[in-house]
């Protein structure tokens, strides 16, 4: 009897070990679509300590700075190779009047930030400060124009002020304020969440308003604007259809917003730390829904734009939890855990996989707000787990997306599926979530880059990438790194800022065209081969 019990134990153990095998077929000779670098964009709104204290401290601050910008934050963001950054909002954009933020800083008006925390904004960070910031981190600016409380004339003048190189009152005013040559502005959003905080509009009304405003979004001095219409969120497909149908010929892209809520919903988004496996599961499940929503919005776009002239800009995405205890609720401050990093990696995998339409995306937000890259506290600064994911994923920027076919296990907790499904009125064909997520790309030098995530909280995953259509001979020295932690809610703190950071990864080998790796539980890996 003891022998049978022992035999049964080993039989079960063997089955469990076998169940952790995963295979991904990599079709290296079928890479036809480029992953646009701008999918890795950032978002900085006048919200809480995102800009003031986070990016901007002023030249007279005791905190080390360059021209008023925090030196430590600048250095960290430069390392990320950020392609674009969106400003001034967000909801703030449709209350922002650009003339408040130019001229001598001590003469600028103080305005109440009615959206975020009820604090007074002294406008010391305005157009010149933002555009100089983009220069310092070598990112393209993405400007969101005020449609909700602004006018076409105000927007038209702002564009002329920023981009006209000739002799006009507005161009000369820019010169008086310290910028002789015009800026190059590519990404230009016409309204933000016009269905909500940007004006509570109906789709038909916004479509007409968009047509009007974009008429006055002029190109000056060789500058060419890439016009982005305000889209909606997750399951609101009707807005996308109406705006594309009525105004699609006048836009380069339409936006889509999607926030991952790990908790019960908007009324209780869940804590950003000290959560259990159930809320970890909910967060992962909700994060992976981004794929469903992109597919559905793309289907509508294909109906009216089969040539794919209009892009989908996912210009607000990320994890949104309850505010950090003791913080101003209007500042949207939250911790950033390993779970959030895994949601970031799988979200980037989804965005990469839709490279045919998704050419621009912006995580919310860059510093101190929502799923931030960087947190600050006075002179202290730390890099979050999400920062490290973006750093690891830099390899995919402007590389060619390599198609893959994955046969992977699933992490299943059927009793936990329903709350997420019911929140969106969805019913999934399969319970649970895939344990392995990945992106494979090939750069201009023929080097292939693999980013792989193990979402299982308790089990190692063995993954074999069967590389077909290309000869690969070696792993690029020093390229294999892993991000993980002691638990799914592991965080970096100002007392221990390096608790969660990438380390050398050794459980990987390449032989006969097969890249095999053993992924520890809840981890993200990057490795390159040539």
Concise synopsis of the structure shown:
By secondary structure, the chain is an alpha/beta fold. The chain is built from eleven helices and 28 strands.
Strand content: 15-25%
DSSP strand tally: 28
Low-confidence stretches: 1-19
CATH topology of the largest domain: TIM Barrel
Largest sheet properties: 8 strands, parallel, barrel
How many individual helices? 11
Overall geometry comes to: globular
- Category by helix and strand content: alpha/beta
What percent of residues adopt helix (DSSP H or I)?
Answer: 25-40%
How many domains is the backbone divided into? 2
How large, in whole angstroms, is the Cα Rg?
24 Å
Distance between the termini: 54 Å
CATH superfamily membership of the largest domain, which one?
Answer: Glycosidases
> Roughly what is the average pLDDT, rounded to an integer?
95
CATH class term of the largest domain? Alpha Beta
CATH architecture of the largest domain: Alpha-Beta Barrel
């Amino acid at each position: 009897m003891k022998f049978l019990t022992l035999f049964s134990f080993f039989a079960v153990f063997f089955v469990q070990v076998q169940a952790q095998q995963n295979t991904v077929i990599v079709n290296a000779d079928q890479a036809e679509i480029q992953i646009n670098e701008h999918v890795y964009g950032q978002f900085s709104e006048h919200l809480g300590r995102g800009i003031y204290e986070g990016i901007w401290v002023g030249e007279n601050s005791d905190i080390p700075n360059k021209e008023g910008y925090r030196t430590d934050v600048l250095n960290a963001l430069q390392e990320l190779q950020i392609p674009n950054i969106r400003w001034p909002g967000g909801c703030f954009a449709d209350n922002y009047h650009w003339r408040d933020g130019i001229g001598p800083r001590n003469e600028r008006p103080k305005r109440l930030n009615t959206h975020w925390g009820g604090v007074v904004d002294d406008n010391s960070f305005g157009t010149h400060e933002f555009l100089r910031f983009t220069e310092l981190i070598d990112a393209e600016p993405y400007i969101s124009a005020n449609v909700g409380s602004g006018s076409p004339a105000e927007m038209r003048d702002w564009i002329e002020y920023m981009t006209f190189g000739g002799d006009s009152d507005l161009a000369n005013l820019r010169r008086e304020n310290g910028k002789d040559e015009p800026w190059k502005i590519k990404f230009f959003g016409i309204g933000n969440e016009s269905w909500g905080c940007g004006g509570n509009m109906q789709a038909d009304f916004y479509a007409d308003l968009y047509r009007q405003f974009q008429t006055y979004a002029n190109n000056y001095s060789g500058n060419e604007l890439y016009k982005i219409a305000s889209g909606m969120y997750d399951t609101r497909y009707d807005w996308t259809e109406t705006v594309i149908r009525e105004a699609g010929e006048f836009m380069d892209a339409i936006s889509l917003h999607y926030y991952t809520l790990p908790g019960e919903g908007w009324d209780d988004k869940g804590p950003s730390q000290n959560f259990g496996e159930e809320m970890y599961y909910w967060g992962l499940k909700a994060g992976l829904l981004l794929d469903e929503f992109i597919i559905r919005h793309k289907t509508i776009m294909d109906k009216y734009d089969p040539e794919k002239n209009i892009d989908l800009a996912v210009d607000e995405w990320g994890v949104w939890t309850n505010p950090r205890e003791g913080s101003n609720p209007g500042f949207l401050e939250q911790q950033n855990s390993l779970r959030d990093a895994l949601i970031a990696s799988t979200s980037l995998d989804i965005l990469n996989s839709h490279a045919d339409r998704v050419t621009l995306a912006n995580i919310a937000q860059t510093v101190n707000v929502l799923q931030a890259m960087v947190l600050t506290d006075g002179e202290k600064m730390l890099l979050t787990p999400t920062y490290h994911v973006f750093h690891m994923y830099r390899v995919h920027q402007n590389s060619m997306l390599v198609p893959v076919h994955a046969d992977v296990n699933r992490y299943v907790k059927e009793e936990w599926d329903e709350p997420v499904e019911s929140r969106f009125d969805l019913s999934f064909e399969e319970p649970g979530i895939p344990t392995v997520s990945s992106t494979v790309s090939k750069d201009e030098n023929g080097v292939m880059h693999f980013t792989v995530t193990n979402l299982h909280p308790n089990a190692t995953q063995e993954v074999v990438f069967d590389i077909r259509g290309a000869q690969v001979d070696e792993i690029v020295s020093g390229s294999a790194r892993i991000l993980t932690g002691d638990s799914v809610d592991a965080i970096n703190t100002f007392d221990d800022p390096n608790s969660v950071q990438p380390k050398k990864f050794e459980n990987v080998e390449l032989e006969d065209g097969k890249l095999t790796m053993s992924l520890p539980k809840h981890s993200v890996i990057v490795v390159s081969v040539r």
